[in-house]
Specification:
Blueprint (H helix, E strand, L loop, with lengths): L1 E7 L11 H14 L5 E8 L6 H18 L15 E7 L7 H16 L20 H14 L8 H22 L2 H9 L8 H19 L5 H47 L4 H22 L10 H47 L5 H24 L6 H27 L2 H14 L15 H19 L11 H9 L6 H10 L17 H33 L5 H10 L1 H9 L1 H21 L1 H4 L4 H45 L5 H12 L5 H9 L1
Parallel strand pairs: 1-2, 2-3
Helix pairs in contact: 1-2, 5-7, 5-8, 7-8, 8-9, 8-10, 9-10, 10-11, 10-12, 11-12, 13-14, 13-17, 14-15, 14-17, 15-16, 20-22, 22-23, 22-24
Protein name: ROOT HAIR DEFECTIVE 3-like isoform X2
Family: Belongs to the TRAFAC class dynamin-like GTPase superfamily. GB1/RHD3 GTPase family.
GO molecular function: GTP binding; GTPase activity
């Protein structure tokens, strides 16, 4: 078998022009499909230059050996040398243009070598597989069948090979030209930081120019190869520009999302319903995104922006959900604050003024304020268009919050019940019905006042002992009254009542509603009594002191003894009226001292303290009284002097100098009788 290959001299050592891929395919197929036998490979070098054949042949043989070494071999032929399959022959032909006669002679010699190839030493190699002429037809059919069935032997036509090579080269050139395109670089840089207007139209134009240039340069090549390479070029270009396209979609998505958030907040601030605002804004800005994505659409690409669109939709929904949670939390907090403001102060005031109507009033207050809050909250929730079950749960939580608020306030006040009890006791015990401070004059019934004050304090304790928001009767107040206030109950019954308080729970009152246990009530009452005992004792002492200070007269027997024993002195006074005047003046002085010293008040706290106090104030009070009397006498004297001066001036005109001088001198001395005598003499 012989194989002939023609090769130009200047193509020796080159990859494609030297048909190295073809040789590689021949080597692979020969090893896979045929058994080892010598096949002659004749390499004919065209247009041999001045380089001797002896120098060209080693280079060619070296290339062939390298191809053989690089070919993947079956396991049975991994170590088989090239010489087992091929007998390599190399010859050269001169240039036809330069040496036509010599070229023809060399061709004739080469033709004879083929004619006599089966002669000894001819081109034919191994003759072991030679087929007789009678079997040539069948052998050729089998060989052709193998060639058709083996795709490795389906070698393309020459024009296909040329088209493949040239279209590949043009493809690479146009791709490199696109990469170096300045307009593309500007687009690529711009989309990294901002939204680029008319991005899709500009990029489609650049791609269209590049592909059009490819079409022009590959017009005359094989249609199949040209189309295939054009598709490859288009895929490479689209793969290159896809990141920029994705960046543009990202800018559109982020910008649309930001505008959606602003518009959504504005709609809510404008009073629009939450659900309606979310629905309208989502619809509007999804349409806006569709318009924006259409502007960046690339004509050459069949890209779908649905994934970015879905992400935008998810981001919008997530923002709506977050705002919804925040708004609901804000609404809940606002109405809880309103309930806190509406309930805390009034409940505290009602518990402070504990009475039989305290808990009914608290229940009424709770119901009224809860209904108002629930009505407002329900109206606010209607804009969210939530399902009825969810809305009912939120309203129920608001009602529970109001109830918990009252219970917490009751527990807080229960912790200060002892202080409240003492304050109430002090208020009632130390003030009268007109809220004026009580003065213990000795006429007040301290026992009754004490009982009233303690009853009011015990009422406060019974009110604070349990939470009564369910309008159910309980025996708390009766037990406390029986144990602490019922004086008519026998000692046995009272002892049993006190024993009934030796418990940590109240009958008919759940533990969750108990604020003060019976044992704690017993301890609190004991402490209350101990701390208020001093106030009662002080009131009794003040009352006793008042009584003593008011009883300043001696006993009746002493008065009788004074009358009997002082009868003679009394008769003496009657016989001498001058003594009565002296006694009257002394009585006035003593009365004045009594008022000035306030002796009744001094002796209210006892005799000894009163005496000590009077001893320090007696002398200053006497001196002060005498000074006032002197000042009064001096003031009257000055007044009389001013009234008599004009009358004396008139008298001087009608009397003798000696008489006038006498009257003026008398007037200056300020005597009360001078003026009448002067008038008498003038007359």
């Amino acid at each position: 078998m012989e194989e002939n290959e023609e090769r130009w001299c200047h193509d020796i050592g080159r990859e494609q022009a030297a048909n190295k891929p073809l040789l590689k395919t021949v080597f692979q197929v020969m090893m896979r499909l045929f058994s080892p036998r010598k096949t002659t490979l004749m390499f004919v070098i065209r247009d041999k230059t001045r380089t001797p054949l002896e120098n060209l042949e080693p280079v060619l043989r070296e290339d062939i050996q390298k191809i053989w070494d690089a070919v993947p071999k079956p396991s049975a032929h991994k170590e088989t040398p090239l010489s087992e399959f091929f007998n390599v022959k190399v010859t050269a032909l001169s240039s036809y243009e330069e040496r036509e006669e010599q070229f023809k002679e060399q061709v004739a010699i080469l033709r004879q070598r083929f004619f006599h190839s089966i002669a000894p030493g001819g081109l034919a190699g191994d003759r072991r597989a030679v087929v007789p002429a009678s079997g040539f037809s069948f052998s050729a059919q089998e060989i052709w069948k193998i060639i058709k069935e083996n795709k490795d032997l389906d070698l393309p036509a020459h024009k296909v090979m040329v088209a493949t090579v040239r279209c590949e080269e043009i493809t690479n050139e146009k791709f490199s030209s696109f990469i170096a395109n300045e307009e593309w670089h500007q687009l690529e840089d711009a989309v990294q930081s901002r939204l680029m207007p008319s991005f899709g139209r500009k990029l489609s134009s650049i791609l269209d120019v590049c592909l059009t240039e490819y079409d022009v340069e590959t017009t005359y090549f094989d249609e199949g190869v040209r189309s295939s390479k054009r598709k490859q070029l288009e895929e490479k270009l689209l793969q290159l520009v896809q990141p920029a396209y994705q960046s543009m979609l990202g800018h559109i998505r982020s910008g649309t999302l930001d505008r959606f958030k602003d518009a959504f907040d504005d709609a809510l601030n404008g009073g629009k319903g939450f659900a309606m605002a979310a629905r309208d804004c989502s619809k509007h800005f999804m349409s806006e995104f569709d318009d924006g994505s259409a502007e960046v659409y690339i004509d050459q690409a069949n890209w779908d922006s649905s994934r970015v669109r879905e992400k935008l939709h998810r981001d919008m929904d997530a923002h709506v959900v977050a705002v919804r949670i925040a708004k609901l939390s804000e609404l809940t907090t606002m109405y809880e604050s309103k309930l806190n403001e509406a309930l805390s102060g009034p409940v505290e005031a009602l518990l402070d003024g504990a009475s039989d109507d305290t808990w009914p009033a608290i229940r009424k207050l709770l119901q009224r304020e809860t209904e108002n809050a629930v009505a407002g909250f329900s109206t606010a929730l209607s804009g969210f268009e939530m399902d009825e079950e969810t809305q009912d749960k939120m309203l129920l939580r608001l009602k529970e919050h109001a109830r918990a608020l009252v219970e917490a306030k009751a527990k807080e006040e229960a912790g200060r019940v002892l202080i409240r009890m003492k304050d109430r006791f002090t208020t009632i015990f130390s003030h009268d019905s007109d809220s004026m401070p009580r003065v213990w004059t000795g006429k007040e019934d301290i026992r009754a006042i004490n009982k009233t004050a303690r009853s009011a304090s015990l009422k406060l304790l019974s009110v604070m002992a349990a939470i009564r928001l369910d309008d159910k009767a309980d025996p708390v107040e009766n037990k406390l009254n029986l144990a602490f206030l019922d004086s008519k109950a026998g000692s046995t019954n009272k002892s049993s009542s006190m024993d009934a308080l030796a418990s940590s729970t109240w009958d008919e009152v759940p533990a969750s509603k108990t604020l003060i246990t019976p044992v704690q009530c017993k301890s609190l009452w004991r402490q209350f009594k101990a701390e208020t005992e001093y106030t009662v004792t002080q009131a009794i002492a003040a009352q006793e002191a008042s009584r003593r200070s008011n009883n300043w007269l001696p006993p009746p027997w002493a008065i009788v003894a004074l009358v009997v024993l002082g009868f003679n002195e009394f008769m003496t006074l009657l016989r001498n009226p001058l003594y009565l005047g002296i006694i009257f003046i002394a009585f006035l002085l003593v009365k004045a001292l009594w008022v000035q010293l306030d002796i009744s008040s001094e002796f209210r706290n006892g005799a000894l303290p009163g005496i000590l106090s009077l001893s320090t104030k007696f002398l200053p009070t006497v001196m002060n009284l005498l000074r006032k009397l002197a000042e009064e006498g001096q003031r009257h004297a000055n007044t009389d002097s001013q009234q008599n001066a004009p009358q004396a001036a008139k008298s001087l005109q009608s009397v003798a100098p000696s008489s006038a001088s006498s009257e003026v001198t008398s007037s200056e001395n300020g005597t009360e009788n001078s003026s009448p005598s002067a008038h008498h003499k003038l007359q």
